[in-house]
């Protein structure tokens, strides 16, 4: 029952669009399904790092890192703003979206996900609530982390397929405006990240 509740809550948390989802969708629309999935690989890799930090770190360790998360967040905000403005400039100048490599898509997803401070703080507060005192702590945290990570991987990939479907349905109209759309999504993601409180 506890696991089922954990899964349901995790799904609710994951499907709410945040910086990761907005970057994944934008990349998919601009560069196709493969690049979108490579972006998911990047966000998922960063999430593994975050889960490891939150699982192994003590509350004291996490609190000491909290100040560092603040400047990390603003690096992420600046990066997303750069991507957004860059796409809007290309849209105004009618420059086609430049092709990105698989590694570039992966790195974009990785750094956007890693610079979201709320994730580590959320994991450090969320996961322990589903740990039983009668069972070994690390094994439970490892299992919960794996479940959350797999759910995030599947659901984020789902966004890729939805975005890819949308790009096919709307066809040339969306392609013609993809720089406007991507720019708006990146700026939206920067706004979401900027509004994130380190303690929330």
From TrEMBL:
UniProtKB keywords: Cell membrane, Membrane, Transmembrane, Transmembrane helix
Record keyword Cell membrane present: yes
Transmembrane segments: 6-29, 41-62, 68-89, 110-131, 137-162
Lipid bilayer topology: Multi-pass membrane protein
A Pfam family per the record: LysE
Family matches, as PANTHER family: ARGININE EXPORTER PROTEIN ARGO (PTHR30086), ARGININE EXPORTER PROTEIN ARGO-RELATED (PTHR30086:SF20)
Protein's name in the database: LysE family translocator
Annotated organism of origin: Litoribacillus peritrichatus
């Amino acid at each position: 029952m506890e696991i089922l509740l954990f899964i349901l809550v995790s799904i609710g948390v994951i499907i709410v669009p945040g910086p990761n989802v907005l970057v994944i969708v934008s990349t998919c629309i601009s560069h196709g399904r493969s690049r979108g999935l490579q972006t998911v690989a990047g966000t998922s890799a960063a999430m593994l790092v975050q889960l490891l930090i939150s699982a192994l770190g003590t509350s004291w360790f996490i609190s000491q890192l909290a100040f560092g998360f603040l400047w990390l967040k603003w690096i992420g905000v600046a990066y997303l703003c750069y991507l957004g403005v860059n796409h809007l400039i290309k849209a105004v100048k009618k420059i086609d979206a430049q092709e990105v490599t698989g590694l570039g898509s992966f790195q974009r997803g990785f750094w956007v996900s890693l610079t979201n401070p709320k994730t580590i703080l959320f994991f450090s507060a969320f996961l322990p609530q589903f740990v039983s005192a009668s069972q070994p702590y690390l094994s439970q945290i490892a299992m919960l982390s794996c479940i959350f990570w797999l759910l995030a991987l599947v659901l984020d990939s789902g966004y890729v397929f939805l975005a890819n479907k949308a790009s096919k349905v709307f066809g040339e109209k969306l392609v013609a405006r993809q720089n406007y759309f991507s720019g708006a999504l990146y700026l939206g993601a920067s706004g979401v990240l900027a509004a994130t409180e380190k303690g929330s």
